[in-house]
Amino acid sequence: MNLTLPAVFGHWSSPRELFGRAIAWIARSHVSGRAATRPISPTRLTWTLHKAATQSILHPRGMRIECLAGCVWLTHDSDPRDIVLQAPATYLADRDSRLLIHALDDAKVRVRAR
Q1: Run of H or E including 31
Q2: For 66-90, what is each residue's pLDDT tens digit?
Q3: By the number of CB atoms within 10 A of the CB, which of 35, 43, 78, 105 ranks highest?
Q4: 89 exposure class (CB count in 10 Å sphere: 0-12, 13-18, 19+)
Q5: Minimal CA–CA distance to 113: which of 58, 71, 49, 60?
């Protein structure tokens, strides 16, 4: 059986590459903190993260990240610092580069614009 994909998918060397690109697109649209179908509130957002889950925030400068429960690890792209927040600690983002929030334990995190 020969499966032909519509031209909208482009030309990739294998179905594995197509699948990988689709997963990457889904991850970018959801992990960046913005759902593809609805916008998020720019003033406050609360996430429950299971252990080893990661969220990211694009352009976080001035946002306050509050660890409400558990423990999270934060890092900005191209920043050598590692920030670990254990509830009830907070962090004020001082850079505009993408911020990764990774749950070291099950955690609850609130993000607020200043």
Answers
A1: helix 15-31
A2: 999 999 999 999 899 889 999 999 9
A3: 105
A4: middle
A5: 60
